[in-house]
Amino acid sequence: MSTSAQGPGGGAVATADVDRSDLEYRAWLKEAVRKVQADANRSADTHLLRFPLPEEWGIDLYLKDESTHPTGSLKHRLARSLFLYGLCNGWIRPAKPVIEASSGSTAVSEAYFAKLIGVPFIAVMPRTTSPEKCRLIEFHGGQCHFVDDSRKMYQEAASLAASTGGHYIDQFTYAERATDWRGNNNIAESIYQQLRLERYPEPAWIVATAGTGGTSATIARYVHYMQFDTRICVPDPENSCFFEGWTRNDLTATSDCGSRIEGIGRPRMEPSFVPGAIDRMMKVPDAASVAAIRALDRVSGRKAGGSTGTGLWSALKIVAEMVAGGRTGSVVTLLCDPGDRYLDKYYSDSWLDEQGLDITPYSAAIDRLLATGVWTE
Fold this sequence. Notes:
With 377 residues, the protein is of the alpha/beta class. The chain is built from 13 helices and twelve strands. It has a six-stranded mixed sheet with strand order 3-4-12-9-10-11, sandwiched between helices. The model is unreliable at 1-15 (pLDDT under 50).
């Protein structure tokens, strides 16, 4: 049997049937997918921790502790999904580098999966990324490629992929489509399963910060698909355009500089951020984010990264609104990654001074809320 194809000049050229499968590549692909899926099969679910609130409020606040993943952050889920997506689409190939634009945690997790399947990995990152994240990327066999302007990460990653013949995995485009939002033990399904035996099994609010926007999209879509009444709030740090883009319904919104809260906040409206799926956004001062993670450390003995603080500040504000309105229920936010990656930043008073951040009024607001149930800023 023969077929016709277009020749270089546009004319029809007779061709024989061609089997384009490569047995060696297909064997490599099957083994790579098996290894990535086996990683998930070996992993237990992450914990749902309670943040202590006065019992008489009738409100339960939980943190989904994503720091217990093998690579220590929420981004482990995303990296696994992105690698499966890239492998099954035929984009990730043997011996060819995988390249990512990342402010840190995603790159740590992707370096882990690249090493797992035996391909090189290059992370294109802002020069201000924490040294501990850089160390972890290199620990997993990845290479750090720095840019001075975070807004140029995308172009630099695409350029590196073109020059090396590698694959730009592009978390900001593919995060929301690589994850199965209908279930399959995604983070949303996990939260609801873990709340089954709690006194308020269907949370009033889930608070999810946005870097790519993929996590908030996954949770919001799952909530709508399952017909829950839960509302989704996305807090946004300073120097990020998501809040402005959402409030103005402007998908072209931009920010002139990068976020100080690593892992969240973007200078452009990312393709994986789905504004229509969420119910509320808050703009959170960076000093408030730091105050919140220091409060978490005081009440629970757990240090977390700045993005956790952004979410916790917003969750506490929602709790205060519920107290003021005489409402009961549960609120869930995310513990995105551990604080030991940021000891020289968010836990350093000298860094706060350098950045001109005063956390005192925000720490006082949290302490006042926990003592009296009254929220003031």
